[in-house]
Amino acid sequence: MCGIVGYIGAKSALEVVLAGLKHMEYRGYDSAGISLVTENELFTRKKAGKLGNLQELLTEPGIPSSNLGIGHTRWATHGAPNDLNAHPHLDESGKIAIIHNGIIENFSQLRKDLTASGIKFNSETDTEVVAHLLSNSLTAGSNSLADAMREVCQKLHGAFTLVAVHADSPDVIVGARRNSPLVVGLGVGENFLASDVSAFIAHTKNALELGQDQVVELRKDSVIVTTFNGEVVQAKPFTVTWDAAAAEKGGFDLFMLKEISEQPKAVADTLRGRLNIDHILKLDELKISEQELIEIDNILIIACGTALHAGLIAKYAFEEWTRIPTSVEFASEFRYRNPVVTTRTLCIAISQSGETMDTLMAVRHAKEQGARVLSICNTQGATIPRESDAVLYTHAGPEIAVASTKAFLTQIVATYLVGLYLAQLKKTISTVKIQELLILLASLPAEVDLVLDTIEEVRGLARKFANNKSVLFLGRGVGYGVALEGALKLKELAYMHAEGFPAGELKHGPIALIEEGLLVVVVVPSPTQQPVLHEKIISNIQEVRARGALILAIAVEDDQIVDEFASHIVRVPHLNPFLQPIVSTVPLQVFACEMATARGHDVDQPRNLAKSVTVE
Ligand code: M6R
User: For 20-51, how does the pLDDT look when each residue is reduced to its tens digit (9 = 90+)?
Assistant: First the structure.
């Protein structure tokens, strides 16, 4: 949830760390802070609010020049988002500075013990205990900051990435991780630490994955990785496949708009290399044997938020194509119950970041019960894919806006590849049918491109309804997942009451919400491909219209029936019913983005949220 950056080398640490923090701000923006190490001195500044506030503070004269620094952007967990609780936190001597992402679950007891020993705390955070523990460890005889870190980490419970510097050790940064991300960037005569590669991609594409419960010592010419017990380990190197420009706005006002517009390419990248010229599906990267996949007798999809909505849509396709019973669960709920999972369960974990703590914990829970885990993930080397038996990367490129857009479309496409692969192995649908569907999948980038032409029209509609208090979203079948996604986007960006319902459920309660002038967005199925569902949804439209609602229909281009029932219609290309969500979601993304803009909100960094939710 917080963003972490560390730099050691020959450049100005202030500049490198601030530039890195700009790319980390999506992970949290309640406060920001830095510490620079100079000759036996620590220079620390921190400020509540967005990074801009810290940057303003740093225009003061006399900032020391330094080649070693750490920086933090915060998503508050323990303590209000004010200056005092901003990171870095210092020990009593003011020589050790520490930044942290995660939650130290036993901080309360540790704080009591430290307070009883006479230590005075300056903040309400769980993080500050670590600064004092490091200091105590060094006083008690630890040989180095890294030794102290190894000792302290063994006393901590919970999830944490910690990065520390010491004024008396101006040649080293020490990092540690457990259940929270931290990657190393390898430069020439310089090295980097960060929550993700976008913080240092402008300097190097060479990186190292750190494993669980590892400590890293970063010097300008060396990187040493050990376990918490001090055994040296070889970290796994990887090369970042995208470049710095991908993490910039590239002429767009908002990352979200840029990412919406990148969707045709993102979908194409998810498909690339996975369909051969004859449209035979090849998923060589799935490291679960064909025999094991053939023996799978139930599928369990676990995810959160937008990723869960992709899973809900995938369920319809899986059951149709593979005839394997499929359930979809909130990761946070699955984790704390006693599920019926066997060795023939295929657990599919969907996560853009690959770091969502609820999903990670659910993956571990499923594995403990004997399930095989396949993750669908966008972030190379993240924890969830590393702990899965197999991974299918979506290759959507970095998604910076907090609201997920291209991740959603590519997650649906990736789940479909898995569904068709299982169908191919289990022979539940004919080869010809699979090829037909693969050809349709291959045409998706062009279809998404077409739907992007409706952007201006949708923006106009959003501005028209920007003062509404509430919007309802209805769908049926795969359209239900789209309705949920449309409502989630509106809640998180426009801070507006929005609910998604299966249209048939309306009469079982939610219809009481309908009042004169309420906007109801309806995801309308195709009248020719899904005539029964289409008829039913037209009846649902009538029911809400009769009670005064205004209807905005997302309907396929040749659906003329809907014309007389809707106040507004946004047309989308007419596709196979399973592919329809890929195009029907795009106008809803634009709608929420524009609604939030019209209401004066920060679209890329909505309040109270962070991109990567690394706490439970
Ligand atoms: O990184 P993940 O896909 O695991 O994230 C899951 C959710 O936190 C995420 O999809 C969230 O709901 C989005 N911000 C919604 O736009």
Answer: 999 998 888 899 999 999 988 999 999 999 99
Where a domain ends, among 211, 228, 246?
A: 246
Query: Within this chain, do residues 229 and 88 fall inside the same structural domain, yes or no?
Result: yes
Report how far ligand 1's centroid is from the alpha carbon of 307 (Å): 6
For residue 100, count other CB atoms closer than 10 A to its CB.
29
The DSSP letter of residue 103 is: E
| Residues 6 or more apart whose Cβ sits within 8 Å of residue 369 | 339, 341, 342, 345
What is the token pair recorded at 270?
Answer: 């998810």
Instruction: Using the atom order of ligand 1, give the atom closest to the CA of residue 403.
Output: 16
Q: Which two tokens stand for residue 603?
A: 């679209």
pLDDT in tens, 279-331: 778 888 888 999 999 999 999 999 999 999 999 999 999 999 999 999 999 99
Q: Are 258 and 410 in contact (CB under 8 A)?
A: no
In this structure, are 293 and 241 located in the same domain? no
Query: Which of 27, 304, 348 for a ligand 1 pocket mutation test, highest count of atoms within 8 Å of Cβ?
Result: 304
Which residues, in sequence order, are CB contacts of 253 under 8 Å at separation 6+? none
Residues 224 and 269 in one domain: no
Burial classification of residue 368, based on how many CB atoms lie within 10 Å of its CB (0-12 exposed, 13-18 middle, 19 or more buried): exposed
Residue 519's CATH number: 3.40.50.10490
Encoded tokens for 402:
């907090």
pLDDT digits (tens, 9 = 90+) for 123-177: 999 999 999 999 999 999 999 999 999 999 999 999 899 999 999 999 999 999 9
CB of 259 sitting under 6 A from ligand 1: no
Domain shared by 466 and 585, yes or no: yes
- Residue 368's pLDDT band, with cuts at 50, 70 and 90, is very high
Confidence of residue 97 (pLDDT cuts 50, 70, 90): very high
- Per-residue DSSP letter, 65: P
Paired sense of beta strands 191-194 and 206-209, if any: unpaired
**Is the CB–ligand 1 distance for residue 353 below 6 Å?**
yes
Q: Which of 288, 298, 344 has its CA nearest to residue 318? A: 298
Number of C-beta neighbours around residue 287 at 10 A: 11
DSSP string covering 113-150? HHHHTTPPPSSS-STHHHHHHHHHHHHTT-SSHHHHHH
Residues 134 and 13 in one domain: yes
Residue 608 is predicted with a pLDDT of 87
Specify whether the CB–CB gap between 238 and 415 falls below 8 A: no
Is the domain of 44 the same as that of 99?
yes
Q: What's the CATH number where 76 sits?
A: 3.60.20.10
Q: Which residues, 6 or more positions from 245, have their beta carbon under 8 angstroms from its beta carbon?
A: none
Residue 391 and residue 370 share a domain: yes
For residues 308 and 91, what is the distance between their CA atoms, to the nearest angstrom?
42
* Number of structural domains found in the chain: 3
Catalytic residues: 2, 611
Structural domain for 96, as ranges? 3-246
Same domain membership, residue 70 and residue 201: yes
Ligand 1 centroid distance, CA of 356 (Å): 8
**Boundary-marking domain end, from 246, 280, 299:** 246
- CA distances for 581 relative to 65, 470, 525, 578, angstroms: 53, 23, 10, 7
What atom in ligand 1 is closest to the CA of residue 405? 16
Are 478 and 585 a contacting pair, CB within 8 Å?
A: no
| Cα-to-centroid distance, 296 and ligand 1 (Å) | 27
